[in-house]
Amino acid sequence: MALTKEQRSKIMAAIHSKDTKPEMAVRRYLHACGFRYRVNSPRLPGHPDLVLRKYRTCIFVNGCFWHGHDCQQGRMPKTNIEFWNAKIERNRERDVRVQRELAAMGWHCITVWECELTKERSAETLRSLEYTLNHIYLKDHVIPYPRIAEECDDYDMAAETITD
Questions:
Q1: Most CB contacts within 10 A, which of 26, 33, 125, 138?
Q2: Half-sphere exposure for 38 (CA within 13 Å, toward CB)
């Protein structure tokens, strides 16, 4: 079905970058699990979709088409190919640049793709996200204990007799 330029323009103008269905699904799940976050934080590069400061984690919920994911939903349109290739390549480059900037600032970055939130895969994806966030928290908040004496040859045992 070929669309006129006006029809295509109207469809594309209706697409929003905030509060998308996939993003709302992730937000509802995380909130129900007790995670608290900020939405589209302007203080960080790339304005991540979700920012969990306690976990030093940014979550990007990306649309497969707009960010060039290698899946069925990320396929290229058949018209105006040069424009779409250039646009999606710029989006990919920006995504990589922003994630590197955030990593340099000490933030963890997680990308959730739109195709991972289908009815068949959403439960698994969201549980995996929850597990990853908990794992990040535990890893970042581990208290380093000194090695036990049995592993260290440098220490003498308190009950050990020293012979000369």
A1: 26
A2: 15
Tens digit of pLDDT for each residue in 40-81?
999 999 999 999 999 999 999 999 988 999 988 888 888 888
Which residue type, as a one-letter code, is found at position 39?
V
Please give the model's pTM, rounded to 2 decimal places.
0.78
For the record, the structure tokens of 129 come out as 């996200």
How is residue 130 written in tokens? Answer: 């929850």
Query: Among 58, 19, 20, which residue's Cα sits nearest to residue 41?
Result: 58
* Model confidence at 115: pLDDT above 70: yes
Q: Give the separation between CA 129 and CA 140, rounded to whole angstroms.
A: 16
